[in-house]
Amino acid sequence: MRLESIKAEVEDAGLAHRGAFHPGPDDLPHGLDAGTIVMLGFVGGEQWAGFAASPEYKDGKPHPLDRWSHRVISALARELGAKPCFPFTTPLMPFIRWAQKAEPVAPSEIGMLIHPEYGLWHAWRGALAIAEKLELPPSDRRPRPCESCVEKPCLTACPVGAFSGGGAYDVPACGAHIRRPEGADCMSMGCRARRACPVGKEYQYTPDQAAFHMRSFRGG
């Protein structure tokens, strides 16, 4: 099995390949056994159309994106002889640690992981635990974009000051704001702090994608 062939299968399934790494013993909790972890997810809006056309998106039942991800990634795992892993099922897997081993991502000034190309417009939907130790390209260790960002507009863009740096996030203030009429812009276009980041602007979510995620965060 070669990583390039896995990438092709992942893209055909409507997902983005989000890097891979060889896990150490501390990366494999709950008895998981693997020689390679391949991360899967979304980049900007590139995979959105596939999900938006799915039965899960249209059936009106709870957690459509999680259900779609579970179905698609489970089928992909069966095809490749891998074990599927998810960030939304138990037992919980260390996806934040895995992501930082697989790609050049690091915590941003507002907490969520930032990528030097995609900025804050990306997500992980699951992973494949593959028994074989695949040959992988050299690690991509580009620096965290926040280090060279002088103005840090993400910290001042939130209308209720929900972000104060160092990853601190006032969830109640944010939640209250988006439930009021004044929060309509955040609900329809996405978090203002996220939009203020100058990195990866071309990957910013479309309004329908942004609104979907904001409704999920708000809970309806």
Describe the structure in your own words.
The strands form 2 sheets. Strands 1-2-6-3 form a 4-stranded antiparallel sheet, with helices on both faces. Strands 4-5 form a two-stranded antiparallel sheet. It contains 9 helices and 6 strands; from the N terminus they run αββαααβαβββαααα. 32% of the residues are buried. By secondary structure, it is of the alpha+beta class. Strand 4 and strand 5 form a beta hairpin. The chain folds into 2 domains: 128 residues; 74 residues, no CATH class.
Going across the biggest sheet, name each strand in turn. Answer: 1-2-6-3
Principal-axes geometry comes out as globular
Structural class: alpha+beta
Quantity of strands, as a count: 6
Question: Features of this protein?
Answer:
four-stranded antiparallel sheet, two-stranded antiparallel ribbon, 6 strands, alpha+beta, 220 residues, 34% helix
